[in-house]
Amino acid sequence: MKRTRSQIKSNPTPITNPQPPIKTLISSKITFPAKKILKPTIKTKEEVKKPHFPLLTPIIQKPLTSQNEITAALNHLRAADPLLSTIINTFPPPQFSNSNAITPFFSLIKTLISQQLSIKASSSIEQRFISLFTNQCSILPNTVLSVTPDTLRSVGISARKATYIHDLATKYADGFLSDSSIVEMDDEMLYEKLMSVKGIGPWSVHMFMIFTLHRPDVLPVGDLVVRRGVEKLYGLKVLPSPEKMEGLCEKWKPYRSVGSWYMYRFVEAKGVLPNPTTTTT
């Protein structure tokens, strides 16, 4: 029997299989892990400016006064650079004095005194400087500071160099430098510290590191003689720049001091080697 339209509205036919609400189809127990957003690493200005130097060779602790270290240096340089090997086989091996009679402090004073002077003139002034004290052992930071600039000038030291010597002694007296710390510092730190002393530049630091401290891996890129030796060794048309020196002598590491020493011998021989078959062990 058909129902009328009014009956359908008043009494609709019930739905036997009702569909659940859509929201009930998704279980409330299912969770999705939060997506982790990685923050970019932001370097500080100091980190951006500071270059990174990878450690390519082991740190050499022994000074060049050790015969074993000299032997190791010559073996390394012969294998690393065939051109330098010829020079090594031509000249006697380097000799670095093991004397402890001169302290680093007095050695730096000698460096300041000798600047732009001949060996004879600087030696004469140095002896007169020593005469101002009881003996060489009494040349200490405080005793040097007790000597007036006028007194230093009276023995032949210029007014400017007197200022340099007092600045060095002040940095020792203040604890900024000391003989013990100079010996223990690595090359980079030592360079920065000594460069802060008035009157001491890159060349002076490099000479001090090689011939006073006998550091094995120092390349004096500003030394005219070493640059001339590298120019002749590699057949360059002009003197190499400091950057060019660094690149050409990279293979000498960690014994660039010894390679530089042979450049002095090479230039002294005017770039003409004696009989290259004469080898020195």
UniProtKB/TrEMBL annotation:
SUPFAM superfamilies assigned: DNA-glycosylase
Entry keyword annotation includes Hydrolase: yes
Keyword field: DNA damage, DNA repair, Glycosidase, Hydrolase
One Gene Ontology term, aspect cellular component: nucleus
InterPro entries: Alkylbase_DNA_Glycosylase/TA, DNA_glycosylase, HhH-GPD_domain
Gene3D superfamilies tied to this protein: 1.10.1670.40, Hypothetical protein, domain 2
Domain HhH-GPD: 113-268
Key word Hydrolase present: yes
Documented EC number(s): 3.2.2.21
Disordered as annotated region, ranges: 1-20
GO biological process, one term: DNA alkylation repair
PANTHER family: DNA-3-METHYLADENINE GLYCOSYLASE (PTHR43003), HHH-GPD DOMAIN-CONTAINING PROTEIN (PTHR43003:SF8)
Family designation: Belongs to the alkylbase DNA glycosidase AlkA family.
Name used for this protein in its record: HhH-GPD base excision DNA repair family protein
